[in-house]
Amino acid sequence: MDHLCKYLIVGGGMTADAAARGIRELDKDGKVIVLSSEHYPPYDRPPLTKKLWTGKPVDSIWRNTAETGIELRLDTRALSNDGTHILDSNGNVYRYKKLLLATGGTPRHLPFASNGVIYFRTFEDYLRIRALADAHASFIIIGGGFIGSEIAAALAMNRCKVTMIFPERGLGARIFPAGLSEFLSSHYRERGVDLLPEENVRAVTGTDAKAAVVTSSGKTLSADAVIAGIGIEPEVSLAKSLGVAVDNGVIVDEQLRTTAADIYAAGDVANFYSSALGQRRRVEHEDNANTMGSVAGRNMAGGSEVYDHLPFFYSDLFDFGYEAVGELGSDYDIIEDWREPFRKGVIYYLKWGTVRGVLLWNTWGQIDAARRLISAKEGLGAESLRGRIFD
Question: With bands split at pLDDT 50, 70 and 90, how would you rate the model's confidence at 256?
Fold first, then answer.
């Protein structure tokens, strides 16, 4: 069946919802169709590893996208095109005037057969893990980064036995300075999480009832379930079929247009130029999804906004939390400004003598100050940074 629309959005996440609302700010009546491969309507993704585990009700995550008057098609995957229309997995054809690629990313998989591993990403994954957690299942978490650390803390707080396996020396070691990574690792152990740092996973075997994980050093561990949080890959298959430029995501200009006329991209999949950092980047966090989606929607509806936002991200880890903005890496020049060592402070990440990123550890309400510091591109030393940001 053929469908005609003014705006077609491929992807059903936070970016798609934000884009639909952006369109409606300028065009109240233009027909919008959203194609989503998920079974559920758009929802806030961060609570899946955060607040849903500490009492936030499930009803609070829904974005209520249908209130914008769009047509939402769930369990529908966009497959291919011929340059003028999109074909979906149900045999429908969509002809559009403006197209937004909000396809996000797909979980990175282990480099070997790993049937039964939960690659945590969606609300359905949350429901599956929640049912296991409510039965006090045991878990092995593969990965010590953003998702792995969050879901491990969430499960441990819900009285589940949790073991983490990761190749780094400590939790968050790719972005945290060594002392903070070591402190956080010790805190996880105190909260009952078993850590196996400097280990890789060689094999995952077992049955539906019990899984076994074999590490590179020869250890064999068993648990009721295995969760992998090892990042995502941008979903660019449709973009490639459309012939738009792709390089670590879909290349967009300052107004979020791809290299093809009337096709835009936003969210996790979009590779954009950051004026504050002076380079291209791709950001996989909520603030970017919401802000970029809104700008893309308004531009599709006739706007001409430049996307020059410097998005932030945040995390909750047991008793600690942080907000961060810019580029973070443990290999940067790092200046630590602690009000209370490892419990409250600000960490600055410098390269070429200028601040490229700021991590606010248990320090709140200072994201805009951090953004201004990064955008200023000033040469700053340790003494001028200490006490610069505080709450």
Answer: very high
